[in-house]
């Protein structure tokens, strides 16, 4: 949080405050990295080869890519998915009522749609262009059969698209940003990220611009009727939120059982908020930590909701706190008491890289760590050892060979995000430079 209020001050520690940078500064850092990349041809047409066939991970390599227990099943370049900028960002997935699996692949100039066939082959189906201009930031989440897409592009708003339109596609289609949308919500223009809280049919846009009036905090939109999204509330007390996970709480803190709780990653703190009443959300705690540089994202670890993993996006590059050696550092938080979360330890990756998004499924954290790719980390030991000493990497796929010679670099290149929720076990990995990878963990 960048702004303290009397209401939350009592429950707040400010260890990280002085160290953190603002989103504006972080965006500049990334854009500088990508400008150098662009100059060097990283986004040029035909810079990367199409993949002729799936390549299993054997003896630490799947074709050009370093790996361990993760097979490269299929791959499509950004240029093969209709992008003319050929630069990727976020990714999400959708499963139809009959079990067909689809991916939404973010690119600076739009969202490409793919189907992942039973044998793992990715098929390009078409794309929804950006609503306004191109932007490096495009983010999407799915609730039910609808996808909600936001972007940092000026005046973009929220695109609402019915994924069922993909069920009958036989040749790739460029969808219309007017007639093919179920709705377009314009209560905000640009946003940095989109959070979904399916249980309450709420989309939370975060990092919205000043005209949206939420100070970049949770801008909550009721999407019970996807054709008619309505603003339901705003959390501005903690200032800018970069990302969040919102759940109907079933954890150990009895005071909040059944409430809708958001864990917000607020640039230099973890903020925990009760958003049950959208019209007046309540901040329960705001907690900093040693090494805080840019508190970016995180995810609950266990069904019991006792532990949470948090990633800081700038501690590696800035060599701060536990990330001084630049190995990707994940912070472990005991959230048993929502009013007093405890930072109990850290986990460090064997590789040097910055961390971005991670999602925990069945005790495995799927970390998208920029230059070191997808890292699959077994975190089940947290139940008995909250220090993180028992955490082990169990598989990886490194989609960015350019930095392999130095065991990685703390730069904003390579992976943006992954989607590890398909019942088939296929994992999508969206690379900034190359395209979409379909992977399979074999451990
Ligand atoms: C995957 O399945 C599709 C559809 O049945 C088929 O056309 C394709 O050749 C298969 N690919 C591989 C690598 O087996």
UniProtKB/TrEMBL annotation:
PANTHER family: REGULATORY P DOMAIN-CONTAINING PROTEIN
Protein name: Regulatory P domain-containing protein
Signal peptide, first to last residue: 1-20
Keywords assigned by UniProt, alphabetized: Signal
Source taxon at top rank: Eukaryota
GO cellular component terms, A-Z: extracellular region
Keyword Lipoprotein among UniProt keywords: no
Species this protein is from: Echria macrotheca
Keyword set includes rRNA-binding: no
């Amino acid at each position: 949080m960048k702004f303290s209020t009397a209401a939350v001050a009592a429950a707040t520690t400010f260890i990280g405050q002085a160290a953190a940078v603002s989103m504006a500064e972080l965006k500049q850092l990334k854009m500088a990295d990508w400008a150098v990349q662009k100059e060097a041809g990283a986004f040029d047409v035909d810079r990367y080869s199409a993949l002729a066939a799936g390549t299993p991970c054997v003896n630490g390599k799947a074709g050009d890519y370093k790996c361990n227990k993760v097979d490269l099943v299929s791959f499509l370049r950004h240029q093969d998915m209709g992008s003319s900028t050929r630069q990727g960002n976020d990714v999400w997935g959708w499963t139809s009522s009959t079990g067909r699996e689809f991916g939404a692949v973010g690119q600076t100039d739009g969202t490409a749609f793919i189907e992942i066939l039973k044998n793992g082959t990715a098929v390009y189906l078409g794309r929804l262009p950006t609503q306004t201009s191109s932007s490096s930031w495009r983010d999407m989440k799915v609730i039910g059969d609808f996808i909600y897409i936001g972007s940092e592009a000026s005046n973009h708003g929220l695109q609402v698209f019915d994924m069922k339109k993909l069920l009958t596609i036989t040749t790739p289609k460029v969808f219309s940003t007017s007639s093919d949308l179920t709705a377009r919500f314009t209560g905000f223009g640009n946003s940095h990220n989109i959070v979904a809280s399916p249980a309450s049919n709420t989309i939370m846009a975060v990092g919205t611009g000043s005209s949206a009036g939420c100070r970049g905090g949770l801008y909550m939109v009721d999407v019970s009727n996807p054709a008619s999204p309505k603003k339901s509330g705003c959390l501005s007390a903690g200032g800018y939120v970069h990302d969040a996970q919102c759940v109907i709480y079933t954890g150990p803190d009895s005071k909040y059982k059944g409430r809708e709780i958001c864990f917000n990653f607020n640039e230099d703190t973890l903020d925990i908020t009760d958003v049950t009443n959208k019209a007046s959300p309540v901040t329960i705690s705001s907690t900093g930590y040693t090494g805080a540089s840019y508190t970016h994202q995180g995810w609950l670890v266990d069904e019991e909701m006792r532990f949470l993993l948090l990633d800081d996006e700038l501690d590696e590059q800035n060599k701060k706190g536990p990330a001084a050696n630049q190995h990707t550092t994940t912070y472990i938080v005991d959230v048993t008491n929502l009013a007093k979360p405890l930072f109990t330890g850290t986990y460090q990756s064997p590789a040097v890289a910055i961390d971005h998004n991670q999602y925990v499924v069945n005790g495995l954290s799927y970390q998208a760590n920029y230059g070191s790719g997808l890292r699959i980390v077994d975190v089940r030991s947290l139940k008995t050892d909250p220090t993180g000493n028992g955490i082990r990497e169990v598989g990886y796929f490194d989609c960015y060979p350019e930095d392999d010679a130095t065991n990685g670099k703390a730069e904003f290149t390579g992976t943006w995000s992954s989607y590890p929720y398909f019942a088939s076990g296929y994992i999508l990995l969206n690379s900034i430079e190359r395209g979409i990878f379909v992977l399979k963990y074999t451990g």
